Amino acid sequence: MEQPIERRTAATSQSRTFDRASLPGQVVLVLQGGGALGSYQAGVYQALQEAGIEPDWIVGTSIGAINASLIAGNAPQDRPARLIEFWSRVQRAHPWDLHGVLPRSADKWSYWTTLTHGIPGFFMPNPFAHAGDRYPLGTDHAGYYSTAPLEATLAELVEFDLVNKGSPRLTVGAAHVRTSHMTYFDSRHCKLDVKHIMASGALPPAFPAVRVNDELYWDGGILSNTPTEVVLDDNPRKDSLIFTVHLWNPVGAEPTNMAEVLNRYKDVQYSSRIASQITRHQQTHRLRHVINELASRLPDGERSKPEVRELLSYGCQTRMHVVQLLAPQLDYEDHTKDIDFSPAGIRQRWDAGYAHTRAVLAREPWVGQFDPLSGVILHESKALTALAAE
Prior knowledge:
Layout: H1 6-11, E1 26-31, H2 39-50, E2 57-60, H3 63-72, H4 79-89, H5 103-117, E3 124-125, E4 145-146, H6 148-157, H7 160-163, E5 169-176, E6 182-186, H8 194-200, E7 210-212, E8 215-219, H9 229-232, E9 240-246, H10 258-270, H11 274-296, H12 300-303, H13 306-312, E10 320-326, H14 343-363, E11 376-379, H15 382-389
Parallel strand pairs: 1-2, 1-9, 2-5, 9-10, 10-11
Antiparallel strand pairs: 3-4, 5-6, 5-8, 7-8
Helix pairs in contact: 2-4, 2-14, 3-4
């Protein structure tokens, strides 16, 4: 089976290497959920590693949690091979390569084959789920598919002893089934295992909920598919360079037919209001910087008062650069794109993530003069900026 982008690595090995001391703080990689679209994230990581930029902290949901575990759960020199191995295993290859001549036929074949047979190494049909919607499947098996193959794949490809050493720190998001609360499982606070990753990717009704510490969890993307807030709200806060990798386009054209409606609906649903989240955090962190500025103008006697010290504790001097990367929309792409595990789809998205990240690193958007009162500085994807201007 063809392995995505392996041939490209040798051809593009002359990328620039960054001095970590030149970067504006800890490096954070935030990975959205999006099924097959997640191969874009693997390309992003490949470009970062070739540039000498290893993340200090990875935050992921769903397929983002899976990619994050493959990175955090392997030594740096083994990470590219593990990502290649995972994405090679989950390819759904057509017996004839029709993408070059009949791409829509190939996509339809891939879609229906995935629905009926699942994805090797990822999920397989649960026949009992079709016995009637009242059939007692049990809480741990209530889904149209079983993710037992994914559990076996992750157990083989991820070393959780490395994950729990905390370098890099790993955080995965999941939705608590009973309370609807967003839960972040964090290697800084608890010991992670395969069940935490499985819980983050348990998207209903396709996949059953996963039990962690006697509680059931679903895919974190139900509540927050772009978990940037966990970084911006972290305590203690640190200067950060945050690469947020978007698989669903928050900005898009008005749909003109039902295929476009379904595609745009999914983008809106899973882009998780990232623009409003960033705006809110920009306002909050600006106020923290304003508090610091005001504190510098107070007499020493005033600053030493307990009630004033408490107010000043809300101030903050940290600065966070948020660099957005956005997966492209491929030709003939529609609302089934998140289950497009075809070799061509995986390869194109991986290559796009690699190329986009290299272009961003070449620009170094975090270098320059910025408003001293800005705590969160957003560097938007060129694709997002162009669409917003239309």
